[in-house]
Structures are given as structure tokens and as C-alpha cells.
Specification:
The protein is built from 15 helices and twelve strands. By secondary structure, it is of the alpha/beta class. It folds into two domains: 168 residues, Rossmann fold (3-Layer(aba) Sandwich); 155 residues, NAD(P)-binding Rossmann-like Domain (Rossmann fold), CATH 3.40.50.720. The two termini are 31 Å apart.
Length: 430
């Protein structure tokens, strides 16, 4: 080409290669390929998402002006079933990040033995800068733009960072209008009144806590003596705090995007929730002392729970962690370089693809209920969630001990193996 531009296919490849999050996901997959018998042709297929859709999402703002946002939906694999994964709204969203998250979802579904492939979506937007009406218009227009690749048997979205059950209700309504019948199984994590599953909102946090309690048994630590630090106080982090507290674990520090607080005697969660519900900032909570955000992850504790964004534990701070259990409630919070440092420590790591799999597991429950039009009780949901989480934890722990592998490598190996075997069985068409 004489115009100095790369062909479209090469530009797309460069987008992935320039993403540190996607590069991190690929490094993890390479590491798995070194320890398990993986067909190189299948490994090559797993390195790239099956389908990536980039759309422009124009909406009319409250001011009357028209603004255009970038939207993404990536389907990493459709071998095991429909793509399954969240939809996030955040200023940092880009194609590489979404592709990495979709890949991690494939491994997560494999670990939990769910009939899904990995998917993920997002819109590059700061929700703090748009109104509720603008968010609805953005969601409905995005849904319209991706109608060609979504469906109950093709791609099922769920809430993620910056989205919630209301967002899913808008997607369900928009899709249902397009097919001319109510289709609750098009999304999960929607309101209970529209076919949502009781316990879905709390599922990710509860799954994290089920794993944490099992890890405490592994290191022979008592919950009554344990303390916890949680980074992130959104849907996942707040539930983790509450669930740990009910089990006798003291929450000594919490943080979010605006700041961090600590109280070595324990944070009063009821008072903190009331403070937040009054639309106050977490850092201004009078029942704790403000600390620098960069000190939150290195605060001494029994359990450290990163429950916010990816790549927060790096080579710069990994050696400074002072916890016994690292429970990765966020996706990709620990970089491969940090993993090298942590490998020589006595920290018990519960990797993200296992630790935060409770959300997609209960999403599966919701999808099944919607298809069958038969709803379960919350007790049934929680009981089945705990059963599946502990089964997966024991499987990963057993594989790690049998093969002398790190927990992350063991978890990824189980997830990758399931997807790889299914691709081998189905073959390559034509």
C-alpha cells in the first residue's frame, strides 16, 4: 500500500498486540501451553477471539447535541455454547481489554463446567458524566448495533463495571421489541420482576467468600482471628465485605476510585453503607481514617481482596503485600511479572478465573430458569452455588498439588483443557 497505512486486518492485529491486558491474557495462555499437552493448532485458535465487533454508538444528549461513543462486543469462543460475559461502561474500555476479558471468561466457564464460551462487551464512557436518560439511550442504541451477533443461543450479556440490572432490563426490552416477544433469556443479571434470578447480584461476592473460607482452612487460619482489606466497594466488593463480616472476619480497610479508609478495630459496615447511600464519598466516612490509595493493597491483613480493575498488583507492589490469602475478585488484578514475585511468597492465591466465577455460575442458573420458565428459591441458588464453587476449588487445588503447579496455572489449565478438548472433538471446518 502506498498511503502508509496498514491493511485493516493488520490494524486489528496491532490493536490487540498494543493492549497490555490482552498481552497479559496471552502470556497466561502461553504458560499453560508449556505445562499441559496442548495441540499447537488449537493453541493458535485460542490465542485469538472468534469474533470481534466494533460499533459506533451515536446518541442525542440531554443538551440536544449528538455524541458518538465506541462500543465493543467480543466472542472469544462459541465451541462450548453461546458466548457469555458482562458488559462494562468505563472510560478505559478498548478492544484489547474486552478481548482479554472474553478470553478469561472462556477459561472461567471451563473451570465451572458451564455450557458457555467466553464473551465480553463494553462502551468507552464515564457513567459519572452522563444522565440516566443518556445511559438508557446509549444502552438501547448499542443493543441495536450488536443485534446481528447476540441471541439466547448466540451471546448472552450480563452486568459488569458501570452496568446493573436496569441496564440489562433495557437490553432485554430492546431485543424483545426486535423479535416481537418477551425474551428474558437474552440477558442475565436483570430485575427479578423480568425473570431475573434471586441472589444473582450477590453471586460474585458470595462465590469469592466461599473460596476464601476454604482457603483459610487450607492455611489453617481461624476466621475469628482474620482481618480483610477490600479494594473496591461496588457490587462485588460491598457484598464481599458483608459476607466476610457475617462470618466473623474483621474488615480493616476499604477503598474505591475516590480514596481509601482504614480502621484497625474494624469498619462498621452498616454505618458505611448508610453513609454511601446518602451519596457521600467512601473516603469521607467518619468512622475510619483516610489512607493513601496506594497503601491500601499493602495494608497488613489476613485476606486481601482486589475487587476493582485489572492490573493493580504489579512488580512494583507485589513484594510489599502483607496478606496470607489473595482472593482475586476482580478480573486480571495480578500481572504476570507480579506472579513471578508472589511465587516465592507464602501467600495463598485464589486466581480470578476461579475466585470470581460465582457471577457467571448464577447467570447460568438464571439462563436455565428463563428457558424453562421455572424459578428457583434463593436458598436453592445459594446452595447450588456453594456446591459448584467448592467443587471447582477442590479440583483446582488437587490439580495444583498433583502437578506441583501454582493455583493460577492449575485453574487456567483446567479451563483451557476443557475448551481445547471440545475444539479437537468438533474439528476444524471445512
Amino acid at each position: 500500500m502506498d498511503n502508509g497505512q496498514l491493511p485493516a486486518t493488520h490494524r486489528s492485529q496491532q490493536v490487540f498486540e498494543d493492549s497490555p491486558v490482552f498481552e497479559m491474557a496471552c502470556r497466561q495462555l502461553d504458560a499453560v501451553g508449556e505445562v499441559i499437552d496442548l495441540d499447537q493448532g488449537v493453541l493458535e485458535r485460542l490465542m485469538k477471539p472468534k469474533r470481534s465487533l466494533v460499533v459506533s454508538v451515536p446518541i442525542r444528549m440531554d443538551s440536544g447535541e449528538t455524541r458518538n461513543f465506541w462500543g465493543y462486543r467480543v466472542q472469544h469462543s462459541l465451541t462450548s455454547g453461546p458466548a457469555k460475559g458482562g458488559l462494562r461502561y468505563h472510560p478505559s474500555v478498548d478492544l484489547g481489554e474486552v478481548a482479554a476479558l472474553a478470553m478469561w471468561m472462556s477459561w472461567k466457564c471451563g473451570i465451572m463446567n458451564l455450557p458457555f464460551g467466553g464473551g465480553k462487551g463494553g462502551i468507552t464512557v464515564d457513567c459519572a458524566q452522563i444522565s440516566l436518560g443518556e445511559k438508557e439511550r446509549l444502552t438501547r442504541r448499542f443493543t441495536e448495533e450488536v443485534l446481528c451477533i447476540i441471541g439466547p443461543r448466540q451471546d448472552v450479556m450480563a452486568p459488569d463495571l458501570g452496568t446493573d440490572e436496569q441496564t440489562m432490563a433495557w437490553i432485554m426490552d430492546t431485543y424483545s421489541m426486535s423479535v416481537d416477544y418477551a425474551c428474558p433469556e437474552i440477558v442475565t443479571g436483570k430485575p427479578v420482576e423480568l425473570g431475573g434470578c434471586v441472589g444473582r447480584r450477590e453471586a460474585t461476592g458470595r462465590g469469592v467468600v466461599y473460596c476464601v473460607m476454604k482457603a483459610l482452612q487450607e492455611i489453617k487460619a481461624n476466621a475469628s482471628d482474620a482481618t480483610a482489606v477490600v479494594q473496591g466497594f461496588g457490587n462485588v466488593g460491598s457484598v464481599v465485605c458483608q459476607e466476610l463480616s457475617t462470618r466473623g472476619i474483621k474488615i480493616v480497610a476499604v477503598g474505591d476510585r475516590y480514596g481509601a479508609i482504614a480502621n484497625p478495630r474494624g469498619i462498621d459496615l452498616a454505618a458505611l453503607n448508610k453513609h454511601m447511600q446518602a451519596r457521600n464519598l467512601l473516603k469521607d466516612f467518619p468512622g475510619a481514617e483516610q489512607i493513601p490509595s496506594e497503601e491500601l493493597l499493602t495494608t497488613p491483613c489476613t485476606i486481601l481482596v482486589p475487587a476493582a480493575l485489572e492490573r493493580v498488583i504489579t512488580s512494583a507492589n507485589a513484594g510489599k503485600l502483607r496478606c496470607r490469602v489473595l482472593a482475586e475478585a476482580a478480573n486480571g488484578p495480578t500481572t504476570p511479572d507480579a506472579d513471578v514475585i508472589l511465587k516465592g511468597s507464602d501467600i495463598f492465591i485464589i486466581p480470578d478465573v476461579l475466585c470470581n466465577a460465582g457471577g457467571v455460575t448464577v447467570s447460568y442458573f438464571e439462563w436455565v430458569q428463563d428457558i424453562q420458565q421455572y424459578l428457583w428459591t434463593e436458598q436453592q441458588v445459594n446452595q447450588k452455588l456453594e456446591e459448584l464453587m467448592l467443587r471447582a476449588f477442590n479440583q483446582v487445588r488437587g490439580f495444583a498439588q498433583q502437578r506441583n503447579l501454582a493455583m493460577r496455572t492449575a485453574a487456567l489449565s483446567i479451563g483451557v483443557q476443557k475448551t481445547a478438548k471440545e475444539k479437537m472433538r468438533r474439528g476444524l471446518y471445512p
